[in-house]
Amino acid sequence: MGVKLNHYFTDSNAWFIRTNCPNSLKYYEREGISFTQDNDFDTMNAKSKGYERYSFGWTDPRGLFGTQGV
User: Fold this and answer.
1) CA 24 distance to own-chain centroid
2) For the purposes of burial, counting CB atoms within 10 Å of the CB of 61, is it exposed (0-12), middle (13-18) or buried (19 or more)?
3) What is the pLDDT of residues 5-62, one digit of tens each?
4) How far apart are the C-alpha atoms of 47 and 45, rounded to whole Å?
5) CB burial of residue 53 (10 Å; 0-12, 13-18, 19+)
6) How far is CA 1 from CA 4, 11, 35, in A?
7) Of 62, 50, 51, 68, nearest to 21 (Cα)?
8) Does pTM top 0.90 for this prediction?
């Protein structure tokens, strides 16, 4: 366990507790990252892109407790 700090909270009264409930929070990598690139013949501009799909969720709601603050 231990303390973890989240710098992105917008309320100083917000808090969350992550429990030791096994397999409660899930991260699914639906499609791994892939990169492609192409060159425009007329302008000689190089284009590139990255693509990936992922999802977050839980299988046991006892894994996380918290409040958004006031």
Assistant:
1) 16
2) exposed
3) 888 888 888 888 888 888 888 999 999 999 999 998 899 899 999 999 999 988 988 8
4) 6
5) exposed
6) 9, 23, 36
7) 62
8) no
